[in-house]
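Q: Fold this one first, please.
A: Sequence and structure below.
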Amino acid sequence: MLKKKDDTLKKVLFRLRRYWAALIMSLILATLNVAISLYIPVLVGQAIDHMVGPGSVDMAAVGQILLLVAVCIGAAALFQWLMSIMNDWVTYRVTKDIRDEAFRHIQALPLSYLDAHPHGDLVSRVVSDVDTFADGLLMGSNQLFTGVMTILGTLILMLSICWQIALVVVVLTPLSLLVANFIGKKTFSMFRLQTQTRGEQTAVINETIGNLKVVKAFGHENASMAQFDEVNDRLEKCSLRAIFFSSLVNPTTRFVYSLVYAGVALVGALMVIGGGVFTIGNLTSFLNYANQYTKPFNEISGVITELQNAMACIGRVFETIEEPIQKPDREDAKVPEVTGALRIKDLSFSYRKDRPLIRDLDLNVRPGQRVAIVGPTGCGKTTFINLLMRFYEPDGGQILLDGVDTQDIPRGALRHSVGMVLQDTWLRSGTIRQNIAMGRPDASDDEVINAAMQAHAHSFIKRLPNGYDTMIGETGVELSQGQKQLLCIARVMLCLPPMLFLDEATSSIDTRTEMRIQKAFNTMMEGRTSFIVAHRLSTIQEADIILVMRSGQIVEQGDHVTLLKKNGFYAQLYKSQFAH
């Protein structure tokens, strides 16, 4: 676990290297601040020596010294303020870089990783964990520079004033470091568990709120509350343990520093009483230095809790960043002139190696053909589409598009040549116009409106408060599932790519509108290779080829009439839907 923490620290330092100039400037400001702060006790000691003894008070000298002390305090405050600004800038630049890196990496991760991890946990890593890291880094950087300089400066000055008393400080101080280090090692694993549990809690909240209608419809409130309570109880227990053990650092180190201060005061007082060159002013300065020497240790031990928590949080973010991304496009990748000719040879794929799904699938599709894919739930229809789009990579076999293996085609070029309408709709926060024009941002208003009219979305769009400029999403107008699907269809009709993938594209639309959209689809599919996934067999009767899938394999293939005459599995599916 300690090695893992050290690795995390190295990764943080690696990302700080870009801002070395700002860090050096912060270090210079910290040095100036500490130097002035250490000079103030010298001035105070001199002022005291000017007031020791009856009738020997030199008020003119004391006044000059106090004026100089005031100037030093103002300068120290200015340098401290500038250093804080510099550290703030570095901290939030680094956290911005880490968030950019994490978000960019998440978009490059394979869908298999995203499907296997709760989305709420990923959101927690990029948002909450990075925020916690920023707080810890900010506290640490502000204390670190001034603390190190203060320790070195006061140690040098104490040795120059009286090395015997300085030895008392140097010998006792490491006790606090040993205590802080011991507790720090123990609390890191606890904070890591706390962070993981917090991410799990975020995932539960995100899942419940996102599906609250389903929860209420099935009376699942008590079960959801029980699930949340279980995670919340675990978070409470691990948080209390982490905070309890980390809170031991401050009082134990303060106890050691009190011993140091008492030892310095005792030895120094004996030396003053014994006579010699060690004066009351020297003792006052030395006590101030002893206090300043121990103060950074105390402050650093006070932020150990935050630092441990920050390292645990950012470690989770680095775990996500270091996940292997999807296999990159080949350097010699080709961009063919897509006509829609598709050849599939011995295709095989499985989500889990012990559960084969698609096996030895062969298919030959000519340009412009309409291919319907039917079969029972879980037979591999949507998986087949995902493989064609390279959302997943096949375990074996080849998918050839116009004679070129899709593995040799850049993903962007492949997906740009395909228009896709899914059963699950996705619209981003923005205007209706922006959502329709997502695939063609340069489309004119007339083209957007024409696409919406073809998708039979124009009529309901005009009824919205601001028409095509109506904001939708979390901060805008709420649309029904059917209306969202119509906008997704309009988006594809605007792009008109050479290939179409329709996966239950009209599942949320009423029958009357569906019949109209089917006519629009028929017009759009003219001359374009189209794959249509459908459960309602009435929508695919005009397809050139119907692929009947079962357990990941094509068990029947042909047009609607031919398959009915075979009286096989397709005929059973068809009769089950239209039997009276």
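Q: Good. Now the second chain.
A: Here it is, same layout.
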Amino acid sequence: MTASVCSMRLRSSALCLILVCATTVLADSGKPAGATSVPARERLSLDRGWLFHEGDIPFPVITGHQASYDNAKAGSSWGAAAPVYDDSSWKKVDLPHDWAVEQPFDPKANLSEGYRPRGMGWYRKHFRLDPADHGKHLELQFDGIATHCTIWVNGVLSARSWSGYTSTYIDITPIAKFGNDVNTIAVQVDAVAQEGWWYEGAGIYRHTWLVKRNPVHIETDGVFANPVRDAAGKWSIPIEAQLYSSDNIPANVEVESTLIDASGHAVVSGKTQATVEPLKEAVARFTLAVESARLWSVDEPTLYSVRTIVKRDGAIADEVTTHAGFRTIRFDPDKGFFLNDKPLKLLGTGNHQDHAGVGVAVPDALWNFRVRRLKEMGFNAYRAAHNAPAAEFLDACDRLGMLVMDENRNFGATPEHMRQLDWLVRRDRNHPSVILWSVFNEEPSQGTEMGYELVRRMSEKVKERDTTRPVTAAQSNSVLNHVNASQAADVAGFNYVYRDFDQYHRLYPTKPIFSSEDTSTVMTRDEYVTDRERSMLDSYDDQVMPWGLSHRNAWKQVAERSFVAGTMVWTGFDYRGETQPLSWPKAGSSFGIMDLCGFPKAAYYIHQAQWI
């Protein structure tokens, strides 16, 4: 190693985060951080201590045979992807991080992105691993990076992501370094790419993790434990645990799950045996029969836990705890939605994920705040528009009693589209708050055979992972076409096509329907005179967009029809971008029932009067 390379390595080493079993450990087992025993699994936050460079760093041009030869080998990387790259001048940041929200407003930038420039960026992180971690299965987890990204670990090209809303999991076991050797993560973020027509932010805007597991373990998102009730009224929890082994010999294991109530008491346990071959997957299946259970509802969101452990030679090799809620859901074509066999009108809002000040880098506490604000208004449902939400948001909905329409972002049936959809369902299928899988929003092909066939295939993909919830799609026109996408969905979602409620119900009397998006009224908080030169709209519920209705009239269309399961008002909160009917210097929407900070507008009190 040359002197210059050594000096780069030393500068990088000074920035290292030493990852050991300490007070920062987040263990799925729920053991206290100061426990003396080593947990079977450790999930450590990697959010602190990143280095950030705004703008792209072009890779050097490779010339000559030897350089070309070296470049083609595994572990070869150049420029900012190389472990020895000098990043000592980069800005220090903690995650979640959205660099777009820090940008000045630019009238030449994309209106849909709130006139905020985005562009390219790089992140790097250095850390050491304890030699005791050698032989463990090690996984990096990126919960969300906007928008496209390429990730190198120790100079090895390790992952590419084509969606800013799906997580990326990287097995670094074969390439990890231990002791004094430094591990380097480099992430190139392409935020020029867009997935939506709203503000999407830029950067590593969700959490990052390092997960340490034994060689034989439960895969990430590998436990499915959603309670179901049979025709006789008996409750059970079908357990499905997906196992993996990075060991070099077959492993005979015992998989055991225990249902734990809200007081921490064990209710029932069950177990089975499995054999996991080296570098192979295995699935352990068994069922927990539950004699009685307290139900989860929007008013009393009672949560249980399912603790799943894997034992090898009598010792715990892995341990995962998932939440569970006992509740039944049903969409009736004539009577609407039922929760726990009781009719419940879905009173929902659609929302993007950005919030005042933080952009899309939303702290966990803000998810609780947003859900609580909506419930105070009388809402019981939430549409994640138009993408997979943060896992922490769904946790808040489970705890606080908010029903969720969980929505896929990219519409299609290619392997990559299916991978993104499969990830969504696999990650979120244990949440009692999730009641609908939505596969698209307002796609141009929605009224054609193409739209029908794509939904048919995507619905089948969903059902490979979960058959306990219906599939829907948010369709904005052509629902009366001879062939259209709604025919392949379990529940038809209508965006603004109020006029077709009655005729569609006559044509398809066995198909449940709901208003997946409606209203679209704009207003400014505490303003009662419209002054467009000042970008101010009055707050009288009469500034209605051409495709929508007022808050009062849109609700009337749903309330008067028992067969319409509910509403998803556009929107609960204002958001950046989509400034219509205004333009520059207006940089955010006015559709919200609350403003970007969560302060109520007149529509807030209209809905409180309607529903509370």
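Q: Anything worth noting on the second one?
A: The chain has three domains: 3-213, 216-324, 329-611.
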